[in-house]
Amino acid sequence: MNLFLPRVWHVVLVFLGTFIFCFSTIHQPAALAATVPPVGDPPAASQELVAPSRSVVDPSSIPSEKVSEFVHACLQVVALIERREGELQGSETESESLRVEQEIESEALAIIEKAGLTRQEYLQLLGLANTDPEFGERIAVQLQEATS
User: Fold this and answer.
1) Taking the model in full, what pTM does it have?
2) Is residue 92 part of a domain?
């Protein structure tokens, strides 16, 4: 029995945010914009992604390749979290919980980089998907297609 609540790092929360975003999108795409709260590093969501001369990202300027990379990474991070969730919740000591959290963070970052994104790009796209209804719908459509 777990005798304490594991300490969850910010990055793990971001990846759990990915899980919430992707799961909600896959199972309830119409409710996405209204039900998924913003997740991630708020300053990162408003930083430059595609157009260096702009201070705010224009979602329509994000190439479809980046969106596809994000969707691919998002689905794999969700699978990772689902696979490791029981292990994290079943941690009996704080050091064991910390070890599992670090492993999840490391694996998630490797997934993101293998998909062709940097950590910053991933967080920016995640934040944008959670705050911009049109971009969120664009992601939702691709997530639906990828899981159909």
Assistant:
1) 0.65
2) yes
pLDDT in tens, the chain (148 residues): 333 333 333 444 455 565 555 555 544 444 433 333 344 444 443 343 443 333 367 888 999 999 999 999 999 999 999 999 999 889 999 999 999 999 999 999 999 999 999 999 999 999 999 999 999 999 999 999 999 8
- Indicate whether 50 belongs to any domain: no
Secondary structure (DSSP) of 60-129: GGS-HHHHHHHHHHHHHHHHHHHHHHHHHHT--SHHHHHHHHHHHHHHHHHHHHHTT--HHHHHHHHHHH
Helix/strand/coil percentages in the chain, nearest 5: 75, 0, 25
DSSP code for 47: S
CA-CA distance, 135 to 88, in Å (whole number)?
32
Residue 95 lies in a domain: yes
**Domain presence at residue 51:** no
Q: How many domains does the chain have?
A: 1
Residue 85 belongs to domain spanning: 10-45+56-147
